[in-house]
Amino acid sequence: MAVTIAPSILSADFANLEAELGRIATADWAHVDVMDAHFVPNLTLGLPVVQRLAQVSPVPLDCHLMIADPDRWAPSYAEAGAHSVTFHAEAAAAPVRLARELRERGARAGLALSPATPAEPFLDWLGEFDMVLVMTVEPGFGGQSFLDGCLPKLRRLRSAVDEHGLEVRLQVDGGVSAETVERCAEAGADVFVAGSAVYGADDPAAAIAQLRGLAGG
Ligand SMILES: O=C(CO)[C@H](O)[C@H](O)COP(=O)(O)O
């Protein structure tokens, strides 16, 4: 299974975001956390910044929308040049319709599940998505402790994806580090988001390489 490492810019220096992207040029994707202070109690950045980052980033942008009403706003992130656009199941009114719209606009469509959101309602619809994001912390902030209780959900998704021969990536985000990444890989993840473990390291490239190795890549 291919391993994708996507450092979260949530732990980067927001005053120097363009330069901070340069520090993770050995990663596969840059994970961009869009937070609106409504769906989550934090505010980060929005569409104009993503448009700019998409132009200068050395790696594809993986946009994680932690926003209310993604049905209205997510397609613009696809048009802004994001490689993938992931929205939250808890916030979307029509997840399948929205996924189709994102794909029509040239982006990969991702469905994010917060820790308390079960996978079961979506198992029959997995083929509509390119990726499912299993949040391993409550969305909103970096630097939180990894929630082991999310791993059974990841295993359930991995079984469903493999059983039906689907090409759906399974992403984990939150508390992913050298201590937890192997557990995520064993449970079926193949895309790993890490914020503080990469941007908090003296050598982000070495941290990326270590995570990749531990994840089996
Ligand atoms: O989506 C997020 C929080 O909502 C972040 O991407 C995530 O928490 C990454 O930070 P860390 O690796 O430090 O936990």
TrEMBL record:
EC number: 5.1.3.1
Keyword Manganese: yes
Binding of substrate, residues: 8, 64, 140-143, 173-175, 195-196
Pathway membership, UniProt: Carbohydrate degradation
Residues binding a divalent metal cation: 31, 33, 64, 173
Example GO BP: pentose-phosphate shunt
Coiled coil: none
Top-level lineage group: Bacteria
One GO CC annotation: cytoplasm
Summary of the function given for this chain in its UniProt record: Catalyzes the reversible epimerization of D-ribulose 5-phosphate to D-xylulose 5-phosphate.
Protein name from the UniProt record: Ribulose-phosphate 3-epimerase
Species annotation: Quadrisphaera setariae
Classification lineage: Bacteria, Bacillati, Actinomycetota, Actinomycetes, Kineosporiales
Gene: rpe
